[in-house]
Amino acid sequence: MVNTIGVLALQGDFTRHREMLVSLGCRARAVRYVSDLEDLAGLVIPGGESTTISKQLDRSHLREAVSSFARERPVMGTCAGLILMAREPSDNRVKSLNLLDVAITRNSWGRQVHSFTTPVKVQLNGRHDTVPAVFIRAPRIHEVGPEVEVLARIEDEPVLVRQFPHMGIAFHPELTNDTSIHRLFLEALPS
Ligand code: GLN
Q1: What is the overall mean pLDDT for the chain?
Q2: Considering Cα of 102, then 105, then 106, then 109, what sign does the dihedral take?
Q3: Could you confirm whether 79 is annotated as catalytic?
């Protein structure tokens, strides 16, 4: 059976995620309305501007719907998506979906607040691989709860976390040709 994965398309970088999911043999659906969540196997919350996406979640009535979706199916957030999923997004303009027990600070990865690309070693269900990581005004994860696995770090800072089945990524895996992180997410789908 071909899985259909949703990509929240309220604002931000959703097109590249859809392309990557399709390249991995999934169907990908842009999610703008509550009805778009129907029959999805998983959901991606893309990068963009977390304060804007947070407002749009309320306007579109998707906030409640995404929260209840996440009780049964996996969600992966990249960059702004991670901020929205974090228990503590550290900015009162961002209302959290509270899917990951992490505290983050917006726009503050390491000493570099601007964009850069760097190789990062990732734990991929028992395998290890080095993937290129594109950081764009990325959030820093500075607190990780006991249920959260850190699957990649840079300079000791977590940049990829999983609280099974959900994943949060400080960088943008959809902006390279490396599909490892999307494949890892697809491995969490119920079979
Ligand atoms: N700085 C953005 C925010 O806080 C996130 C950046 C991104 O998604 N590339 O929402």
Answers
A1: 95
A2: negative
A3: yes
Top-level class of domain 4-186: alpha beta
For ligand 1, is residue 50 a contact (CB within 6 Å)?
yes
**For ligand 1, mutation pick of 7, 17, 76, 107 (most atoms within 8 Å of CB):** 107
What is the sign of the dihedral through the CA atoms of 87, 31, 57 and 14?
Answer: positive
Domain boundaries, the chain: 4-186
Determine the pLDDT at residue 108.
85
How far is Cα 149 from Cα 146, in angstroms, rounded to an integer? Answer: 8
The number of residues making up the chain comes to 191
In the three-class reduction of DSSP (H, G, I as helix; E, B as strand; rest coil), residue 69 is classed as: helix
The full DSSP string for 110-156 is: TT--S-EEEEEEEEETTEEEEEEEEESSPPEEEEE-TT-EEEEEETT
* Predicted confidence (pLDDT) at residue 157 exceeds the cutoff of 70: yes
**CB 159, CB 123: distance < 8 Å:** no
Q: Determine whether the shortest distance from the Cβ of 11 to ligand 1 is under 6 A.
A: no
CA–centroid distance, 38 to ligand 1, in Å, is: 27
- Catalytic residue (choose from 17, 79, 166, 182): 79
Q: Is 129 in the pocket of ligand 1 (CB under 6 A)?
A: no
Single pTM value for the model: 0.96
